[in-house]
């Protein structure tokens, strides 16, 4: 019996050693993948890394959109809030850290509400002037774009957008309901390099190939504008204007466009921000110091203060399948 017991012990030990070896190999493989994709917390790109540059010609075009169901909201509504010719920029974030004076870690660019700052409240925003041509007092903001090059310091020069196009879209499965005043929304993750999370990400493209989207900085053909596209989530829980992570109350539709259980489709905001960037220029989004200007840290926020009459017009337009603008 002693020999049998010893044999069982040796077998069990051998099994434990084999399991430990398999786990070690899997961890090493996972670490290699994370480092290769720069998703490992604290990982740094190699010196001179191209920060995820992608030749837009190498990005495939997506397939056709699925056909909308009968009764779905297939319309669009576009309006103009300028392109921040006023130079409204600061490091505040009235969605993620309201009422707090932030350190100067990275700057945001604004269109819409002209008063947005670290001390903004719903009441102060609702009393402020706006750059929008339809009276929309919402605040829309995202990190500034920096152009770096010879003779510049390490931070780079802020590039003002050439244009900002704001569009509300519908839902391919169901009609939309009105977006409530003071609803907060976020897209992207400012700490994506060191703190990955499941979140809808902004994309990049070029003006001559707008259907080709990438999460890397695009190399565009000569004469093209660089485009940043922010597609906000649009399935609301029907109750909250915000949530602790600023995302749980307003989530993205599923692959076919249907909203998750217990959420309702509201108008889907798409912001397309265009830049005239010199050919071959090194451009990056302004970012937290530990994020290495990674393109995947791009993000944007808005607080909806669309006047009730305008929101009613938006909902009618989307649900009736019309193409509308604030100028018509």
Q: Your description of this structure?
A:
The chain has 328 residues and is of the alpha+beta class. The protein has 2 domains: 1-37; 53-325, no CATH class. It has 3 helices and 19 strands. It has a 6-stranded mixed beta sheet, covered by helices on one side. A 5-stranded antiparallel beta sheet has the order 3-4-5-18-9, with no helix packed on it. Strands 7-6-17 form a 3-stranded antiparallel beta sheet, with no helix packed on it. A hairpin with an 8-residue loop joins strand 6 and strand 7. The protein starts with a helix and ends with a strand.
Topology record:
Elements: H1 2-36, E1 54-55, E2 73-79, E3 89-90, E4 108-112, H2 122-126, E5 139-143, E6 145-148, E7 157-159, E8 163-171, E9 184-188, E10 203-206, E11 218-219, E12 226-231, E13 235-236, E14 250-251, E15 264-265, E16 268-275, E17 282-285, E18 299-303, H3 308-319, E19 323-325
Parallel strand pairs: 1-11, 2-19
Antiparallel strand pairs: 2-8, 3-4, 4-5, 5-18, 6-7, 6-17, 8-16, 9-18, 10-12, 12-16, 13-14, 13-15
Q: What is the distance, rounded to the nearest whole angstrom, between the alpha carbons of the first and last residues?
A: 93 Å
Oligomer: single chain
Shape: globular
Write the H/E string, N to C: HEEEEHEEEEEEEEEEEEEEHE
Strand order of the largest sheet: 10-12-16-8-2-19
**What is the total domain count?**
2
Structural class computed from helices and strand pairing: alpha+beta
What is the total tally of β strands?
A: 19
Q: Nearest-angstrom radius of gyration?
A: 24 Å
The total of helices stands at: 3
What integer is the average pLDDT? 85
| Strand proportion | 15-25%
Largest sheet: 6 strands, mixed
Share in helix: 10-25%
Spans of at least 5 consecutive residues whose pLDDT stays below 50 are: 1-9, 11-50
């Amino acid at each position: 019996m002693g020999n049998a017991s010893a044999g069982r012990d040796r077998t069990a030990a051998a099994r434990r050693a084999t399991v430990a070896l398999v786990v070690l190999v899997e961890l090493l493989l996972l670490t290699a993948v994370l480092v290769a994709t720069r998703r490992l917390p604290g990982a740094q790109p190699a010196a001179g890394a191209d920060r995820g540059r992608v030749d837009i010609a190498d990005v495939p075009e997506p397939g056709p959109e699925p056909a909308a169901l009968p009764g779905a909201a297939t319309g669009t509504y576009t309006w103009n809030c300028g392109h921040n010719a006023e130079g409204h920029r600061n490091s505040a974030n009235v969605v993620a850290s309201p009422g707090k004076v932030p350190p100067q870690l990275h700057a945001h660019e604004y269109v819409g509400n002209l008063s947005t700052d670290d001390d903004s409240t719903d009441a102060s925003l609702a009393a402020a002037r706006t750059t929008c041509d339809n009276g929309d007092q919402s605040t829309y903001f995202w990190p500034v774009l920096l152009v770096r090059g010879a003779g510049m310091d390490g931070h780079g020069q802020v590039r003002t957008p050439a244009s900002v196009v704001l569009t509300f879209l519908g839902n391919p499965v169901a009609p939309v309901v009105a977006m409530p005043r003071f609803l907060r929304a976020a897209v992207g993750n400012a700490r994506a390099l060191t703190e990955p999370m499941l979140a809808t990400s902004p994309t990049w493209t070029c003006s001559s190939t707008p259907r080709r989207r990438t999460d890397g900085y695009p190399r565009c053909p000569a004469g093209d504008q660089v485009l940043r596209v922010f597609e906000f989530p649009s399935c609301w829980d029907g109750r909250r204007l915000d949530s602790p992570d600023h995302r749980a109350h307003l989530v993205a539709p599923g692959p076919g466009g249907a909203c998750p259980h217990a959420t309702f489709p509201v108008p889907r905001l798409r912001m397309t921000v265009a830049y005239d960037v010199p050919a071959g220029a090194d451009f990056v989004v302004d970012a937290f110091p530990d994020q290495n200007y990674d393109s995947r840290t791009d993000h944007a926020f808005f607080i909806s203060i669309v006047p009730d009459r305008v929101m009613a017009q938006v909902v009618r337009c989307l649900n009736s399948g019309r193409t509308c603008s604030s100028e018509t």
